[in-house]
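Provenance

Sequences were taken from public entries as deposited. Structures were produced by running a predictor on each sequence independently, with no templates supplied. The record for Phosphorylase b kinase regulatory subunit from Gongylonema pulchrum is shown for reference.
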Amino acid sequence: MLPLLQVFESLGKNEKMGLGGRPPRPFGPLNTSKIFKRFGDTILCYPLLFELKDFYISADPAVLIDEIKLNLEFMSKRWKLSGRPTFCMVLREENVSGEYFSHMLDLLIALKNGYVNGVRVRVGRVHVSVCFWENRVFESGKEGQGKHLICV
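Predicted structure for Phosphorylase b kinase regulatory subunit:
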């Protein structure tokens, strides 16, 4: 199975026109707010700020909490698609224990109460009817090779 990033690299790729496709860079907050379907599987993406090996923010719980709030605010101002954006959080033990426990608890309470820094949020299960679903079909493979469609 191809990682979602590799699948998206095929977007805009056209060897005849000399187009290399989407650069292999991580998704921003708006793309990670979509729910993807690929071969019948549901794919939820979490924002880069939760990535441990490539990004440093999750190592500092105070900065992580501020970045979560900023991401929610950014999405509330920039989301233009139908359906609601989905924000997936990764809670690790080190972020919900120790000296920052009360700060993370305040954030979780704000999420549960429905407002984070003035942004209306809703915590719950993923529902098909209220989320934005990204369904795409990509053609994969080079010319002359067996091509197959990749549905996302």
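Strands lie at 13-14, 19-20, 35-38, 41-44, 115-116, 119-120, 133-134, 137-140, 148-151.
Residues 4-151 form one domain.
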